[in-house]
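Hi everyone, sorry if this is the wrong subforum. Our group has a chain we'd like a structural model of before ordering constructs, and none of us has done structure prediction before. Sequence below.
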Amino acid sequence: MARYLMIDFGSTFTKLVAVDREREDILATAMRPTTVTTDIRTGYRAALADLEERLGGPVAFDRIVACSSAAGGLKMAAIGLVEELTVEAAKRVCLGAGAKVDLVLSHHVTKAEVKKILDKKIDIVLLAGGADGGNTECALYNLKMLGEAGLRIPIVYAGNKDCQDDVLALFETYGLEGHVAENVMPRINQLNVKSARDAIRDIFLKRIIEAKGIKKIEDEIDEVVLPTPEAVLTACELLSKGYMNEPGMGELCVVDIGGATTDMYSVCHATKRSDVILRGLEEPYAKRTVEGDLGVRWSAPGIVQSLSEEELKMVLLDTGVDLKAEAEKRFADVSFLPLTPEDEYADRLLAEMCAYKAMSRHAGRMEEVFTPIGMAYNQTGKDLTDVRTVIGTGGPIIRSRFAREILAKTSAVFRGTQELRPARPDFYLDSEYILAAMGLFARIDPLSALRIMKKHMKPLQ
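Answer:
Right subforum, don't worry. Here is the predicted structure as tokens:
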């Protein structure tokens, strides 16, 4: 029997998934609180003990690999020239690499903005700016500012290739830990993610996991290979596309609600329509966005702040729930567990708001424009209206009795909006919390990982 152990060192829980490769199935799962602030091995060993009890005793695994978002995950700053172009391209590369973008800066950075990089304890800076053949002055200016501030964190330069020699010289002059990747936007509105994403992953593996106290676990496992969100994105893409002769589930969206953030993933083309004009930066086929202000515990106040006074009053009128008071209660005690039906209902409402707002920010928009030759349609972002599969994951969805109602808020619930949300999707639940694990297992056996995911995504009626 070929047995593999996949581990996700999450910000809150360490999750273990034991896989039988020959049977193409899950043997058992277990989770315990992550203990990265003391010793990450403590939580892992406790979860492993639970897992072995379920398996009837200790197990010799053929391979043990892990992903991690512990200790705040991978925190990045994206710097570019124009907000809608290179800044947006840099931001998408960071998100696709599994990072949380804590700081976004454009044009010439100031000393106060450089100080923010230090204050926020950013792990990596992605510096972009200028299409190839375009502006070089801004990126070089910003790099000098980072150098003069004595920045001692990795900097990935992924801007105009024309000034790469000057960039390397500045790295040396200021003693910066610099890395050079291909331009994230070599031409206007053309997105190039792979080279910069690979550079970020290499830095994560060689430097960041050690800095965050994760590397000490490598004595007991084979390796930490990815940030957790990148593992989930890998799983989403495999589950959508399929592998070899095994079909996938087609175009899909995944919403992952947590205590601090809400991640949204979509795997689909930007549009299938021939009568629209696409505006803005090219959209990636597999896209991730993360909302740092939407979460049901640490970020519960952010949910309230994202709503207008009128919307809060409507919630109170329709449901009798004072959403502001409930959010403050959960923020004050992030370990809060619902004990009454009223608590459970308030948790459901907060999760619904996360799903609704996160999809609103992720989905594209359509605008009708009257022209001399008739009506035209301008589209920005991705058109998700034909996506037929929406999958929910994350504790607030998986543990809720109202998972379907929460996921329903990702679809087109209001008429007349310009948002291009899924119109009539079917809903599924990652009820055993395996997406990140299958993103890891896909690096070993993508066909088996695909079949396991298809077997374990639970349809919601």
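For your construct planning: The first strand starts at residue 3 and ends at 9. The chain has a mean pLDDT of 93.
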